[in-house]
Design goal:
8-stranded mixed sheet, 2 domains, 39% helix, binds adenosine-5'-triphosphate, Rossmann fold, ABC_transporter-like_ATP-bd, alpha/beta, single chain, 315 residues
Length: 315
């Protein structure tokens, strides 16, 4: 049973120009996506740079204006309430940003950074607040004295842990994690990802994991949506996407995942060339004249794939 639904979400940015600086065009950053979130599940949003992933995340928490569509949270339409401090949605949906450094206020001590959502959403006495901050630091594996330090005194991985401590301070139901590890070293990436998995299990958290890295998403997510130019190309369970991809764009993305092992390297290269040739040959059947994909059609209860031009004509 889902606790949150996004219906036909659109975020369009006006492009201004000409002598009178009028609107001459629009960037269809997010162009009609729908998703549902269940408790304790991790959802992946994958696609190449500029496809609309971050805009989706920011629109959900109210940092971008929604052009069209709705967000239903626990049965209530919260599309226009996302900035209200009183809304439980704001307490229950938190975000972790890619750049941990710039998402932490450099002039504030860690205790004040973590206390921010606590003061906004929980009514705690100063003593309770102090205890809560110590608890959160312990959960993210940081020493007690970290609370008196400033963000610049920590490494990238530690800063990301502080960002996570702030995000989980209000006991949220959903955390939107926008490329949370892409700025970190590979070894620290694994540490932070494993830690995020641990707290997911412990607190029954749901994640919307935004990434261009299909390897990371495979490790973290139960359900994956592949995005291209603001629309979903394919959406389904991890198994659907990785073992039975249907859209030529998904197949192309999967064939491009780098593999370290030298075993089967030549075979993988031949497969990549084959997928690319198929992609080029079939392109016009899968994308319209503006490079947009057609509407999603169900393949099964959980697996949806953008139609081809032929199927669209039949419909
Ligand atoms: N404020 C804005 N005004 C106009 N266009 C914007 C604005 N913000 C984003 N865009 C455009 O919207 C599209 C989607 O951007 P978005 O940042 O969501 O992509 P992304 O998939 O997150 O990319 P990346 O992986 O590089 O972060 C891009 O074409 C981008 O240029």
């Amino acid at each position: 049973m889902s606790f949150m639904q996004i219906n036909d979400l659109k975020v369009h940015y006006p492009v201004r120009g000409g002598f009178f600086n009028t609107v001459i065009d629009q960037v269809l950053a997010v162009d009609g996506i729908s998703m549902e979130f269940e408790r304790g599940k991790a959802y992946g949003l994958v696609g190449e740079s500029g496809c609309g992933k971050s805009t989706t995340g920011k629109a959900l928490i109210g940092l971008e204006k929604i052009t069209n569509g709705s967000i239903i949270y626990e049965g209530e339409n919260v599309t226009n309430k996302r900035r209200s401090r009183k809304s439980s949605f704001n307490r229950d949906v938190q975000m972790i940003f890619q750049d941990a450094h710039s998402s932490l206020n450099p002039r504030k001590r860690v205790k004040d950074i973590i206390a921010e959502p606590i003061r906004n959403f929980l009514s705690l006495t100063p003593k309770e607040e102090e205890r809560k901050i110590s608890e959160l630091l312990e959960i993210v594996g940081m020493p007690e004295d970290a609370k008196f330090k400033y963000p610049h005194e920590f490494s990238g991985g530690q800063k990301q842990r502080l960002g996570i401590a702030r995000a989980i301070a209000t006991n949220p139901k959903l955390i939107i994690a926008d490329e949370p590890v892409s700025a970190l070293d590979l070894s620290v990436q694994a540490q932070v990802l494993n830690f995020m998995k641990d707290i997911q299990n412990e607190f029954g958290l749901s994640y919307l994991f935004i990434s261009h890295d299909l390897g990371v998403v495979k490790h973290m997510c139960d359900h994956i949506s592949i995005m291209y130019k603001g629309r979903f190309v394919e959406t389904g369970s991890k198994e659907d996407i990785y073992t039975n991809p249907q859209h030529i764009y998904t197949k192309r993305l999967l064939s491009a995942i780098p593999e370290v092992s030298p075993v089967g390297r030549e075979e993988r290269k031949r497969e990549r060339i084959r997928v690319e040739q198929h992609y080029q040959a079939e392109h016009k059947n899968y994308f319209d004249e503006n490079e947009r994909v057609f509407d999603l059609l169900p393949v099964s209860n959980t697996h949806y794939v953008a139609a081809t031009s032929q199927v669209k004509e039949v419909l």
